[in-house]
Structure formats: structure tokens, C-alpha cells
Amino acid sequence: MARITAGVATSHVPAIGAAIDNGLTGTDYWKPVFAGYDFSKEWIRNNQPDVVILVYNDHASAFGMNMVPTFAIGCADEFAPADEGWGPRPVPKVVGCPELAWHIMQSVIQSDFDLTVINEMAVDHGLTVPLSLLFGQPQAWPCRVIPFAVNVVVYPPPSGQRCYQLGKAIRRAVDSFDEDLNVQIWGTGGMSHQLQGPRAGLINKEFDNAFLDRLAGDAEALAKIPHLDYVREAGSEGIELVMWLIMRGALNAKVRELHRFYHVPASNTAVGHMVLENVD
Ligand code: DHB
Ligand code: FE
User: Fold this and answer.
1) Which residue has the CA at smallest separation from atom 2 of ligand 1?
2) Domains of the chain, CATH where assigned
């Protein structure tokens, strides 16, 4: 049977991808950011997933005002890195897992969550930066990846509670897939940041650290934070944190926090990162 064994939460700041691609990871500015991922790189080498369900948001690369799915699952064989204005990142193509993706699609829709099926999609920094942070710069990504896109760009975003419950539905779907697969689920984005308007540059360390404190052991209550509280406290792009709740909902009630990292600043955001392992 397929099993979700662990969850990873991480920011997906585009400038982190640019730092990697341009050989800047050892500079004074970036060194402390990448140091926060040393543990996780080693951990994932020893806990290699077969498939990662990678929950992220598209930033007007594949979707725009012409089409805004709230939840979309990538069912294709492969996904190309998106051109976000400077050419596609020099990273491997993403190899999908259509059998599991279609199974999740069927199971989750039948659990009353509407998903949009995507059979062709370029994937942007929201998906490729987390892969680079965990896997470095390989010739090919070492596992298959199911892109799971969430709209947090165009109002209204889904609530944290709905995301958390969706995570539980994804979990049931994986549990009922009849193939031995080690599956991880990653939630990306966050932490506090606002990229535009009078509050551009907003960082809220207290909110971020409270969120990190509660994610492992107090997720049921954490999921009840209304979307406006994210916007008010963590900035307009801080709402990306609801994607961490999809990841958390897909894990066991009891999890072990293996690693936590928080750093300010990276570009315009606070970088947060956590590795959670399922406890039976
Ligand atoms: C920035 C961060 C993000 O997470 C993002 O999606 C876009 C921009 C930034 O810090 O510039
Ligand atoms: Fe983002």
C-alpha cells in the first residue's frame, strides 16, 4: 500500500532559486538561509520518497485571470519549469506520477473536494525552489512529483480549515492506493510577507513563530484561523501558509518534529521550514 511517511514545510522564495542557479549560496547574505536546510538534505537522502505530493501556488505563470482553479492536481507524465521572465530555471523537468494523481483526483472529488485536472502545465518557483532546497542540483529529480496547486493569489483564497480537511482527504486517497509507495507531502510558501502596497516588506516574527509552535501539536485549532487574520497579521502573501495546513492535515494526528528553521530576511520574506515525521 502507498503510505504518507513525512511532511515538509518550506518557504519557496524565488530569490532562493536565483541564488542557487547563480552560485551565490556561499555569500554572507545567503549562507545562513541555506544552512537551515543542511539537516533536511541529509534526512531526505536517508528517507528517499518515491513520490512527493507538492502543494504550492502558481504565481501567474501557468494560470492568470483567464483561469483560476482553487485546487488543481497535475496528472501529466511531466511538467516543464516555467519561464518567469528570465527564462526557465536551469533545473530538471518534473516527472509526474499520473496513476497516483488520477487516483487522488477520483478519491478526493468523491470526498466532496472539487479538484481541477491539469494535463499540461509549466511549474514555477513555488514548486521548483523547494525541490532545489531539499535535493540540491541533480541531473534529474530523485523522485516523482505530483504538483498540487492552490489559489492564494486571486481573492478569495480557500480557508485554512478547508485546506486542513483537504489534507485529510488526500491522506485517505493515498492510503487506498494499492501500490507500495513511500509518499511525502510538502506544503510550501509563507511565512509572513507582503509584496505590494503600503505594507510591502511586512514581517511578523511573533505570528510566524506561533504558527511554527502550533503546527505539529495544535493543528486542529491552528486550522481555524480565518483568512483575514493571515492577511492582517502575516501580510497579503502570508496567506500562502494555508498550504502548510494541507500538508499537516495529510499526516497523522501525532507527528514528530524532526527539524525547524526560521530566518529573516530572504528577499522580502521570513523563511520558515519544518520536517515532520508520522508517528503511529
Ligand atoms: C517573494 C516571495 C515569494 O514567496 C513569492 O512567491 C514571490 C516573491 C519575494 O520575497 O520576493
Ligand atoms: Fe509565493
Assistant:
1) 13
2) 3-198+205-275 (3.40.830.10)
